[in-house]
Backbone:
């Protein structure tokens, strides 16, 4: 009888070990779906976008400034005016665009430098949350931020959708009132209508991130509740073990 009990106990221990391994794997998956980790990945994504945008804006601004500085606009205008004074009327808007290009170059360069120097709101929020020592409070704060981002993005999306729909309606009305039949407002209206449809039906990154959190947590909790191993004593004093898997 003892020889029979020993293999049974070994099998029970193996089942217990397997259940523990499964539980640990599920726990690791749950850790990956924590709000803190999702917020961290979102902050890294925002940082990458900020660096790429900042570098592109700075390079474009500097390149435009170098290109404009290589053009001697005064020499061009003086030669043209000496040949025909009436060309001043034509050269004036060109000169205006030339100096306006310097202003645009400065704006692009300055905005690019600011983008590189100033972290985004998501990055700042994650940096502050990461300093919290209590893991439960840290998770709650990260979750509240995800909800806040999703709600704000949803409101902005619907505002843009309503604005685009209103502009599309205005373009259609203007096009219907045109008599010459050469109005292009209907094409603009179709473009604005497509933009409105996109705003109404395509969710933002923030909303999708919050949905991913909800779906992931529900899936992990469901998987964790499937594996159960109960070990105890039977009424006759023997050891009983029940291993169950729900599906």
Residues:
């Amino acid at each position: 009888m003892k020889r029979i009990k020993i293999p049974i106990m070994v099998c029970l221990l193996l089942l217990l070990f397997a259940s523990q391994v499964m539980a640990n794997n599920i726990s690791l998956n749950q850790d990956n779906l924590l709000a803190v980790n999702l917020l961290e990945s979102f902050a890294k994504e925002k940082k990458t976008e900020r660096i790429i945008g900042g570098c592109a804006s700075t390079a474009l601004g500097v390149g435009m400034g170098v290109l404009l500085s290589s053009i001697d606009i005064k020499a061009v205008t003086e030669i043209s005016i000496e040949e025909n004074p009436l060309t001043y009327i034509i050269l004036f808007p060109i000169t205006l665009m030339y100096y306006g290009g310097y202003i645009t170059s400065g704006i692009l360069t300055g905005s690019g430098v600011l983008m590189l120097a100033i972290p985004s709101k998501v990055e700042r929020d994650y940096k502050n949350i990461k300093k919290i020592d209590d893991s439960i409070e840290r998770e709650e704060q990260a979750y509240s931020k995800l909800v806040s981002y999703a709600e704000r993005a949803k409101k902005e999306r619907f505002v843009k959708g309503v604005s685009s729909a209103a502009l599309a309606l205005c373009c259609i009305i203007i096009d219907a009132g045109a008599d010459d039949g050469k109005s292009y407002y209907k094409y603009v209206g179709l473009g604005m209508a497509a933009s409105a449809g996109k705003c109404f039906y395509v969710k933002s990154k923030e909303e999708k991130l919050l949905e991913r959190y909800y779906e992931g947590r529900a899936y992990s909790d469901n998987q964790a509740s499937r594996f159960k191993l109960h070990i105890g004593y039977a009424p006759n004093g023997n050891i009983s073990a029940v291993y169950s898997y729900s599906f």
Q: What stands out?
A: Confidence is low (pLDDT under 50) at residues 1-6, 12-30, 222-227.
